[in-house]
Structure formats: C-alpha cells, structure tokens
Amino acid sequence: MTTADNSTRANISIALIIGLRLKQQSAVKAVRELSRITDPDSPTYGSYWTASQVAQFFAPSSESVNSVLSWLAAAGIPNSQFHRSHQGHEVRLLSPRSNLHSLFPSWSSPLGAQVATSIPVPVGLKDHVDIIIAEPAADTPSRPRPRAVLAATDAHPTMMPSIRRDTEGSQGQIPCHQQTTPACLRSVYHIPDSDNASHPNNSLGIHIPSWLTWLPEDLDTFFGRFMPDLVGQRPVMAPINGGYQNLDVKMEPFNLEANLDFEYAMALTHPLPVTNIQVGSHDLPGPQIGTMLAAFDRYYCGSLDPSIDPIPPDKTFDCGTAKPPSVISISFAWPEHYFPAEYLSRQCLEFLKLSLQGVTVVVATGDAGVGGHPDGYCSDPRHPNTTTSGSFVPNWPASCPWVTAVGGTSPREDQDQAVVAWRNLPSAAHPPNNRITEVAYRRLFLNKTIRTSSGGFSNIFPVPDYQAKAVHSYFAAALDPNSALSSRFNRTGRGYPDIAALATGYSMVTNGKWVSVHGTSAAAPVVASIMAKVNEARLRAGKTTVGFVNPVLYRHPEIFNDVVEGANAGCGLDEAFPAAEGWDAVTGLGSLDFERMLKVFMDLP
User: Fold this and answer.
1) pLDDT for the residue 454
2) Same structural domain for residues 276 and 168?
3) Residue 582 annotated as binding site
4) Which carries the bigger pLDDT value, residue 509 or residue 62?
5) Are residues 286 and 426 in the same domain?
6) Which of 74, 123, 134 is nearest to 100 (CA)?
7) What is the pLDDT of residue 100?
8) E strand or H helix at 13
9) Same structural domain for residues 235 and 329?
C-alpha cells in the first residue's frame, strides 16, 4: 500500500443523515397524509401543503437528534469533531479511518479514495438514521464514479432515454396508424386546441440532464409543419447546477430526446410556457434526478450520494433554490438494482413530498419489457454479467409509488365505412383516418432488437393501497401463481406502469432531418401535457392542480381506453406479462381520454 493510499484511508468524512421522519412508521404516516389530500372521496381533497409545511412534517425529532449525539459521545467522539448541517437533517463528522471500523464494525468494504455508500446503520440507530455515507475529505484525490453508474451515464450520453429511432420520417400526410403527429394525438385522445392565454399559475417542466439540449432550428422546422404559431417560441430555461443549452456539439445522441420532448409538449399545450429543467454542467454528466430534487428541497441535499449524484468537487450545488413546476416529465429510466435500496427509498420520499405539494411527476417506464432498461437482460447471481435467466428487472423511477409511470402502446388500424367508401371512389387527396385501437407497444427494429413497453413489479417498494385491488385482479385473471413466470418477479411489489400512451412512429425533426422515433419517452411528455391541460381548466375554475393523480385514476377506470392486446418481452421471453382487461403490467390502466378525464377532475373540489 502506498503512502498516498494510507493518507486517503486516514482522511474520511463520515456523514450521518438523520431523520426520524424517514423511518417506516413515519413514512406510513406521510402516505396517510398524502391519501387524505389525493383520495377523490376525501373531504380534504386538493388541500395541498406548502414547502414549509412539508419541511416541518419531515423534520427530525429531538429524540432522534439526542439518540445520535449520545451514540457519538458513547463512541468517544468529542463535540469538536462533528456538527449538524442541512438545517439539522444531517450530523457530519471528520474521523480518521482508524475510528471507522470501531464505529461501524459490520462494515468491511475497502474504501481507498472511492466514495462508499453502503455502511450499515448500527442497530441502536435504525429508528433514527436513514443513510450513512462515507466520502473522501475535501483534500483527498477523487476517483471516477463506480462502473455500474458509468454504465448508466457516461457510456450512454442520452442517459438511457426510453426512445429509439429506426427510419427517416416523412413530411407528407400519412394516416395516424402509420405516423404519430400532434394532430393524431389530439384526435386519438380528444385533446382540444388551446386558448390564446394560459393561467399564470399553470406550469409544465421537462427534465433534461447535462449534455442534452434542443436545437432552435429543429423546433422551428417542426413547428412550421405542425404548429406555425409556435415558430420562434422557445422553452423557458430553468438551469440547475450549471445547466446550459449545449449548442457546441450538435449530434443526434445529444439532441434527439430534448427535441422530441419539447416539440410535442409545446405543440400540445400552447400557449402554456414549457420549462426546460436543465440539470448539470458540461463537467457533471450522470443521473441528475437526485440533484434536481435537491434543488427543489434543501433538506434532501445531505442525502445526495457522491458515488451516484453528479456533485461538483467543491460541493457547491443548487440546494433548495428552485420551485418545482406543477407537472414534471421525466423520459429516462435505469434498472432499479443499479442503486442501493436505501438510496431509492430516500429519493422516492422526495417524490412523495412533491405530491404533498400538488406536483404531478410523470415518468417513462422504459422499452426493455421485463428486463432492465435498455438491454432487456435479467438479474441472476449465477451470471454476474448479462443474462436471460433469473429475475425480471424493474426500472427506476417508474417503480416509485409516488410517480405516474407511463408505458407504451402501438396503433392498430380499424377500418370504417368512410375509408372503404374513399377507396371505392376517392373524393380527396388523402383518405380519412381509420379508427385506431391501441395494443401493447412492440417494435422489431432492423437490427433484430425487440423493444416493448417496460412493466413489472418493484423489488423495493410494496404495492400501494391505491393500486392493491387492481394488481390483485390482474393476478387472478392473467397470472397463474403456479406458473414459472411467477417465480421471476416480486408479487408483493408496486406494479407499473400506471397508464400508457402511443409510443410508435413519432414524426419529429432532429439535427435538420425528419425522423420517426419510438419509445415510452415519447409517451411521457404527451401524458404530462394532458395533465397540464387539465390543470389549466381546474385553475381557471378556481380549483387546485391535479397533483398526485394515481388515486383518482385507479378509482375511475372510465377515464381510460383499455388496452387488452399484446404483451411485453425481455429476459429471453417473447411474451412475459400480458395485457388484460383493467390494469396490467404492460399498459397499466390504459390510455387517457382527455374529455373523460377532464370531467372526472372538474367534478372534484
């Protein structure tokens, strides 16, 4: 071992993240509070909390603080070596490595200069401490993030968005079962055109991580074809941690997803300004969900994990500086097992906090079926590398119960009499559109890759109460508990997706070319746009935003176009979870009908 290694091991900053409100019974209490304001039958529906009320509810108790301070004193740590930070939610101490194993005898992982995140919480503190993070002190040389995280970030500049391009697009008029356009989405989902003004309290934001950006010329080309009134209009930039519009590198991997999201969200919600939540600078690639959430909630900043979250070396980052929009769309997915369970539990709680404040979070499920996004492989300890055996792999953040997870559908043409009559005696340049029936999204690409709507069950989060009846019905109707399939997933986990939308043939412009793209990341901003339009109507009527919509959606199946055909694939299976009547683990409850959804939400307080 070198002198430098010895120095590194002797200079470790140990952060104890403290929060009694994060233990299980308090989380359960928070869930009850969320149900009280999101259950459509509750007399307090829509009575959302302020950010300060949320902070007060989750603040650590004096019992937790005293327990940790007593534990440190018993371990011989003098007061001069620790302090409370992040508004009292964290106790941070500087300790030489020689003290590390005496404080945490069950921790045996080598540390070196690598950030560690898996120090077990001592038994005596389990009711009071949520996460323990050890990281090199400021003067310790840093190392790259662990390879598992690099595989999810740096190796894939687009951060694993749920999208795939396979053909050049067309500028001509093509029927909606062959090409998805803003007009097709309005027709299929009964989305009305917007008025000339939007409510000042309405807002829609799209999460875009570092390096990715939309191109002004691409937006204008798209709008010139489909929404001329939008030519020259731009997203509202909301930079976090040095987020910027990257116009230096114009390449499809960096522009495709952002172009798609804003082309469709702006077209469907105009004149509502759409916010670009641009997270991370050129020097900070990686998953940016946690850092976005920290910008919304200063009390989460101490829970960021430097081995996962891209944090500047000087530890200066936006902490509680941004206000979340009413609807947030996230088009990115990662396998759930890429992250420690305690890390995801803490991050999922941030989504619950946003829900308490009336914020709707819409996320794409991914396109790898029952396998981990993006490759569709399974998890098998006998095969540490990619495998088609073993357990299905749920995706994050779709597996969090406090987001609305969006799967994908494909259109199937159903001929009607108008089209038949046109073919017999054409009276116009183009035939009328046939009716469209949606089936579960499945796409076979030219390289033989199969993409299907990701769906399944979490290995970390249990099925939430609002979903329990629907999941039980699905098991009873479509999944034999004695089948081989049942041994490959967690039958008690949170099921996803919640809903679905068209995920094929989106006509868009990127890098000066018309292309056709596919994936659930195309579906997510469409659903987010629908939510924003419902918010517009409620706000104009003096009501609150829709907030966390899942309890209402599961209570009102009449809102949906039920998708009953198809299945997802993955893990070596051509058909895994089948679509079925009601909720299923491929398309959720089905696709939204705006008019029916609007009626339900306008009838609520």
Assistant:
1) 98
2) yes
3) yes
4) 509
5) yes
6) 134
7) 65
8) strand 12-18
9) yes
pLDDT band at 194 (very low <50, low <70, confident <90, very high): confident
d(CA 179, CA 436): 12
Query: What range defines the domain where residue 129 resides?
Result: 3-43+58-143
Concatenating the DSSP letter of every residue in 472-485 gives HHHHHHH--TTSGG
563 is in an annotated binding site: yes
547: left (phi over 0), alpha (psi -120 to 50) or beta: left
Angle at Cα 393 formed by Cα 387 and Cα 394, nearest 5°?
165
> So what's the pLDDT on residue 481?
85
What helix, strand, coil percent values describe the chain, rounded to 5? 35, 20, 45
Which single residue is written with the structure tokens 């966390």?
A: 548
Of 6-15, 301-310, 404-413, highest mean pLDDT: 404-413
pLDDT digits (tens, 9 = 90+) for 320-332: 999 999 999 999 9
Is residue 153 a part of any domain in this protein?
Answer: no
Annotated ligand binding at 584? The verdict is: yes
Radius of gyration, alpha carbons of the chain: 24
Boundary-marking domain end, from 108, 143, 178 = 143
Same domain for 125 and 169, yes or no, is: no
In the structure encoding, which two tokens stand for residue 586, read together?
Answer: 């491929």
Residues annotated catalytic, as ranges:
257, 261, 521
Res. 522 pLDDT band, cuts 50 70 90: very high
Q: Same structural domain for residues 272 and 225?
A: yes
Is residue 52 included in any domain, yes or no?
Answer: no
Sheet holding 513-518, edge to edge: 164-168, 513-518, 506-510
Number of domains, the chain: 2
The DSSP code for 149 is H
Strand spans (E) along 519-590: 560-561
Structure tokens that stand for 463 in this block: 């099925």
Beta-strand relationship, 513-518 and 499-502: unpaired
Max CA pair span of the chain: 92
115 is in an annotated binding site: no
In a domain, 169, yes or no: yes
Strand-pair partners of 135: 13
- With respect to residue 409, please indicate whether it lies within any of the assigned structural domains: yes
CATH code of the domain covering residue 419 = 3.40.50.200
Based on the domain organization, do 540 and 591 belong to the same domain?
A: yes
Mean pLDDT, the chain, rounded, equals 84
Strands (E), 36-163: 82-85, 90-95, 129-136
Q: How confident is the model at residue 187 (pLDDT cuts 50, 70, 90)?
A: very high
Q: 107-111, 437-441, 466-470 — which is least confidently predicted?
A: 107-111
Give the C-alpha distances (Å, rounded to integers) separating 200 from 314, 326, 327, 442: 37, 12, 14, 40
Please compute the mean of the pLDDT values over residues 547-572 and round it to a whole number: 97
Across residues 257-262, what is the average pLDDT? Answer: 98
**CB contact at 8 A, 477 and 581:** yes
Give start and end residues of each alpha helix (H) in 39-104. 51-58, 62-74, 97-103
Max mean pLDDT among 87-91, 119-123, 161-165, 432-436 falls in: 119-123
Segment among 158-162, 277-281, 300-304, 450-454 with least mean pLDDT: 158-162
E strand segments, 483-576: 493-496, 499-502, 506-510, 513-518, 560-561
Q: Which helix (H) or strand (E) holds 406?
A: strand 404-414
Q: Residues 139, 193: one domain?
A: no
What is the SS3 assignment for 247?
A: coil
Q: Are residues 285 and 422 in the same domain?
A: yes
Write the pLDDT tens digit of every residue in 160-177.
Answer: 465 655 555 555 567 898
